[in-house]
Amino acid sequence: MKAEPEAQRRLLDLQALDTALAQLAHRRKNLPELAELAALAREISALSDERVRAQVDVDDLDRDITRIERDVDTVRMRLAKDQQRIDAGTGPARELTALQHEVVSLKRRQSDLEDSELELMEKREAAQATFEEITARRDATLAKREATELKRDQTLAEIAKEEEFKAAGRGPLAADLPADLVALYTRIRDSSGGIGAALLQGGRCGGCRLDVSGSEKARLRAAAPDEIVRCEECSRIMIRTSESGL
Ligand SMILES: [Zn+2]
Fold this sequence. Notes:
The chain has helices spanning 5-29, 32-88, 93-176, 179-191, 214-222, and strands at 197-201, 204-205, 229-230, 237-239.
């Protein structure tokens, strides 16, 4: 294939734009914010589960406290009733003695229930503190996620802007070059890690970074300037300039 030396040199400009575009695409896919957001999502999910469990603990204790309070009320009412009957002093002495025994036992029961209630209320306070601590951690993580999303979106917008700029330069440049040259370049670029054309500089291929052999140099020197030459090692298009060391 043949192409004007100027067209060949401009292939390097096209390559530079394609390399920049590839780097932008790579940057977009590997934004540190993406890994950070995945980690934050896992953290938020774990904290939400933990928060539900903490809420259940508080609710369970609330239910236990309500039940015990009802029991205390029942005992208090019974005590008041017994006391009334004792105070009235009616009925047989045997019955009065039985009532007095019951009052003693009811008071013990009331005291036991109140001790249990106190214990439960302390537990509830601790459970509530745990719930609030988890909620605060979750809220902080949610805020962190929001900030990270904002940062990600800003970076994506920057990348999109740069891509637009590079693409705007690439279009006319590619259109201006011989179609068969661009097609060859594109084919090599796509099969060779994104580099289709490289400068031959100081006797070294800019694509594979290998020095060309002596016999290869002779072949390159003999090739006409408009001849498309390719690296023996990596098959990429080698662009010859005064820096090529031939
Ligand atoms: Zn090479």
